Every structure is written in C-alpha cells, then in structure tokens.
UniProtKB/TrEMBL annotation:
Enzyme class per UniProt: hydrolase
Top-rank lineage group of the source organism: Bacteria
Keyword Hydrolase attached: yes
Domain Nucleoside phosphorylase, chain residue ranges per copy: 4-227
EC number: 3.2.2.9
Pathway where it operates: Amino-acid biosynthesis; L-methionine biosynthesis via salvage pathway; S-methyl-5-thio-alpha-D-ribose 1-phosphate from S-methyl-5'-thioadenosine (hydrolase route): step 1/2
GO molecular function: adenosylhomocysteine nucleosidase activity
Keyword Nucleotide-binding on entry: no
Source organism phylogeny: Bacteria, Bacillati, Bacillota, Tissierellia, Sedimentibacter
Organism the protein comes from: Sedimentibacter acidaminivorans
Record keywords, A-Z: Amino-acid biosynthesis, Glycosidase, Hydrolase, Methionine biosynthesis
Name of the molecule in the record: adenosylhomocysteine nucleosidase
C-alpha cells in the first residue's frame, strides 16, 4: 500500500520529509515528489503549491506516476465555526468548491460541472481510520465535517458567512476539494485533514505565522499516527 501525502506549503510537509527513510526524489511539472518510507510504510510526499490548479496538477501526477491507494491532504485552514479553536482538527467527510458558480445558468451554487454533485464524499472507512489516529493527539479537539475550498484566502466575516450559509462547512482552505475532485475522477480514496490556523475573519492577522506553525505540527502528528496504525 502506498499513501500519498500532499501539503500546499513547505511548513506542512517539512517534518514528514525529515522522517522519511530510503528517500528518492523526482521533479515533474515543477513539483518535487519524495518517495520513501515513514514508520516502515511506503509513502510519496509532495508540496503542491497554493491553490486549486497546483493541487490538481500535483494530485493527478501523483496518481499516474506513483499509484497511491490513498491520498491525504494535510495542512492548515481557517475556522468557519465558533466552536473550532486554533490548532483544532477537522477531518473531511465531504469537500466542496465554494467558488464554483454556474448559478447564472440555473445551477445550484457549488455544483461541479460533469460530476453533477456539490459535495464530494470521503469514504467512511477512511474517515474512521483518520479519526482513530486523531484520537491519540493530546489536548486537541477533532471534528468531522465539510471542508470548503476556493482560490481565495478567506479573511472577512461576510465571505465566511456566505460559505457557511451555502455549504455548512467547518473550515475553508485553498486545495482540498481540488485534490478530492481529482481523486474522485480517478476512483482513488482521499481525505483532507486540516488544523485551524485562524478564524477566517481577519481577527488573527498579526499572529497568523505563529498559528500556522502550531497548526501544521498538529496535522503532521495526525499523519504520523495514521501511518503507525497501518
């Protein structure tokens, strides 16, 4: 079994790369793929870059080149729910592209053309395994719910409320649903794991770099726990 792990930023995958053994690397389309083992399990790790296009290119290449059985997208996100605090974890049961909008043609907001669905589902057996891995992380609340993705850094209450009202999402980020979209097309299991780095309303602007470090550490710890369990 090969587990693919994608992070958008270096801080989201740096510790995972340092943990790898028997590591080799290959650059394809300006993205470097690191293949090796973590806790004796076969993995391929990549930094996609920020945004949906980078994430989609990275995911499709990883599937074609390395044939992973599961792709996990790890990283940070902005909370859309008051119950989520900094560094709390969200595990996706669905992902949605909140900036997908063909409503001018009479479609529901978020409908993905060609798939004819709004929310892309995550396999229940994958959710269960990731949830178990999260349960070993101390002093951290874990939630399961919809993760919203768009090519926007959400930093206003107005946009935050728009996403919550239309998609009932717990958090927002910029890659997860693109990864889920590609995996869905390829019939590959996936899951998005996000640790909260901010409140997505601009309130944590000055502390964001510090919060990202804390949040990234939490999501990385979850990945380690998951790989140990395999």
């Amino acid at each position: 079994m090969i587990t693919g792990i994608i992070g958008a930023m270096e801080i989201e995958i740096a510790e995972l790369k340092e943990s790898m053994e028997d590591i080799t690397q290959e650059e394809i389309s300006s993205i470097i793929y690191y293949k090796g083992k973590i806790h004796g399990k076969d993995v391929v790790v990549a930094k996609s870059g920020v945004g949906k296009v980078h994430a989609a290119v990275c995911t499709q290449t990883m599937i074609i080149k390395y044939s992973p059985n599961l792709i996990i997208n790890t990283g940070v996100a902005g909370s859309l729910n008051s119950k989520l605090d900094i560094a709390d974890l969200v595990i996706s049961d669905f992902v949605v592209e909140h900036d997908m909008d063909t409503s001018g043609l009479g479609d529901p907001l978020g409908l993905i053309s060609g798939l004819d669905i709004i929310k892309i589902p995550v396999a229940s057996h994958v959710i269960d395994k990731i949830k178990t891995a999260a349960s070993f992380i101390k002093d951290t609340n874990t939630y399961i719910g919809t993760i919203a993705t768009g090519d926007q850094f959400i930093c206003s209450a107005e946009k935050k409320n728009h996403i919550v009202d239309n998609f009932d999402a717990l958090c927002a980020e910029m890659e997860g649903a693109a990864i889920g979209h590609v995996c869905y097309l390829n019939h590959i299991d996936f899951c998005i794991v996000r640790a909260m780095s901010d409140k997505a309303d601009g309130s944590a602007h000055m502390d964001f770099p510090s919060f990202v470090k804390v949040a990234a550490k939490k999501s990385t710890e979850l990945i380690h726990n998951y790989l140990k369990s395999l």
